[in-house]
Structure formats: structure tokens, C-alpha cells
Specification:
Length: about 280
Amino acid sequence: MSRFGSKFGPKIGDARVSRLPDRGVAEVLRDWQREVSRRGGLAFQPRPSEARGPAWPRLLSELKTPYEMWRAGRAERRDPVALPAPALSRPVMLLPGFGTHPARMNGLRHALEGAGHRVSDWGLGFNFGPSADRFDRLCERVVTLARREGAPLVLVGWSLGGLFAREIAHRHPEAVAMVITMGSPFSGDRRANNAWRAYQAITGHTVDAPPVGDQFFGLKPPVPTVALWSPRDGIVSPRSSCGRPGERDRAVALRCTHLGFAGHPDVARAVASVIMTLDQDNG
């Protein structure tokens, strides 16, 4: 062995060196295979017999959403219906649904801004489920934004985003003026939807134990809480997103698909009208 090799270890061509990376790769592959197997087990857990998501025909009807959104937008452009002007401009935060980016809610955002509200998104990019760190960051963002605005926020959460909104309101009621959920499965069994298997496979934890603290999803937050739900929802059970009387202050039925909650004009009008009830309550 050369002096270089003896002083600094084996030479690059030494067989012992070439085996080290292979062993590291093998360990990484084994860990990856174990994790894939674990998440596959989560994805294929049996569904409780009492928990049922919407029937398959209704799920397939979600594919019509782009056409319905286009048709509704065309009608809106032909015969625009202005959103009611609020007595007070409110700071609003939009929280996206599982697997979606805040850009999917741009239609709702533009409509609320047009009505005079100050709208921001949750600031965390795609919503691929919670982690303790990401949820803490979201809570910090809500508290910071409420302090900057000088007023508590209206949290508008679509699907999983609505569950986050409810939990944030439990943690920081001083920073939240109202929670509006849209097709969010806060009531009953967390598996009463057609997305729970994908959720568990992607996040690596069960729907019953998300890392967001105390998980008060079914308990009404200590702020005004309104549930928007749709009997046409093909992903979340309408019973789960409507909730029971003690779990929300009010439930409003809409005729849209689950995916349509992100920006259908009727949804925007409903959200704007619900926000206006804060003015009536304070009047």
C-alpha cells in the first residue's frame, strides 16, 4: 500500500471501500421497503361496517366537476351576480383540501377579494396531510397574521383543511373569528369517506390519530362555526360534513360536487353570506 493509502485509509480502488456504499444503499432500500409495506397495510385496513363513504356512482360524478365549473363560470360571466358587500372587511385564510394546492382555491379567493375581504392562503403549499411541525407552523401563521391584521381571522377550510381550521380554533380562539368548513369530515367516523385509504398511505398515520394535538374535530370550536355540505358530495359522506346540531352552529346545504367546493360561484356566494353574519352578530 502506498504512503497515501496507509495514511489516509484504503485507496479508492480498494474492495473494502467499494462495498461500503453498497451496504448503505442496501440499508436504505430495506428501510424503504419496510415503510412501503407499512403504508400499504394502512391503506388496506378494513373499513368499519358502520362507516360508509358516498356510493361509487356519486364518486364518479366528481369527474363532471370541470364541466360544471366551466358552465357555472360561463353563466356568471353572462349574467354576473355580485357578492353582497360586507359592512366590515374581514381577514380570511383559505385552507386547501387533501392533496391539493392553494391555487385550486383561487376562484374562491378572487370572489372574496372582490367582495372586499383581505384573503390569504395557508402558506404551506400542497396539503399532503399534517405533521406536528407543519401544524405548529400553521398555528403560528394564523396567530401572527391575526396580530398583523389587528383582528381575528375567518378560517375557510375545504375538506381536510376544514379539520385543521376547527383544531386551530380550539388552540387559538383569540385568533379566529369564525370557522367555515366545506365538505369536511368532522362528524362521526373518520372513515366515512372515499379518501381515507389514500390519506393513510400518503401520510403514514391513521385518520384516527393525525399529529395535530388534541384532535377536537367532532367538538364544536368556541367560535361561530358553519358547515357547508352537499348531498352531491362524492368523496365525503354528507352526514359527516353536515354534522350534528351540537357540533356546529349552522349547516348550509349546497348543490355542488366535493371538488366544486374549491371555487364554484354558488359556494363563493354562500361563504360571503356566512361571513356577513359576523356583522349581524356584532351589530
